[in-house]
Amino acid sequence: MTDATPTAGPEEAVRVLRDDHERLLTVVGQCATAVTAEWDGDSVTDRERVVPPFRRALDGSGALSRLPRALADAVTATGRPMAAPPVAAPPYVVVTGEGVVLRANLGDGRLVVLLRAFEVDRGGDGDGGDGGDGGDGGDSEPHRYRRIDGVEIEAEIV
């Protein structure tokens, strides 16, 4: 006998975010653009000039508090159960150097959605990475952050 519970893939989560949360995605993009307006050029190498101001902009715009609802809707679209209601804080909503990561534990894995607003050129050394909350913050950081056009949505169930 097979499981009769219908489930959809991450593409349904992306569809719901695009269709039902278009205004929220627009605000996320506007917040990212506001952050880049403070830069001296089209990119920066200091993560602290990206993540904290982006988080403040998201919070000030009200987007940060609306992201858990968008995540819950994305999970519902997959047809899978969510272990707990999400909140606007890690591990559910994490502001990173690339954008916003939304995570939800499901009955059979985890839905991970990236709302990418920045691209990160990690340089040639390949060490570390942008884990979201940490970072060494040192002046030798090889990463270069640039604003991308719009907000790209990537989703996967892991």
Radius of gyration: 16 Å
Mean pLDDT: 87
Task: Let me know the largest β-sheet.
Answer: 5 strands, antiparallel
H/E series, N to C?
HHEHHEEEE
Topology (SSEs and partners):
Blueprint: H1 10-20, H2 22-36, E1 43-44, H3 51-61, H4 63-78, E2 93-95, E3 99-106, E4 109-121, E5 144-157
Antiparallel strand pairs: 1-5, 2-3, 3-4, 4-5
Helix pairs in contact: 1-4, 2-3
Question: Would you give an account of this structure?
Answer:
The protein is about 35% helix and about 25% strand. It is α+β, with helices and mostly antiparallel strands and about 160 residues long. The chain has a five-stranded antiparallel β-sheet with strand order 1-5-4-3-2.
Outline of the structure:
The protein is of the alpha+beta class and 158 residues long. The chain has helices spanning 10-20, 22-36, 51-61, 63-78; strands at 43-44, 93-95, 99-106, 109-121, 144-157. Helix content is 34%, strand content 25%.
Task: Give short descriptive properties of this protein.
158 residues; alpha+beta; five-stranded antiparallel β-sheet; 4 helices; 34% helix
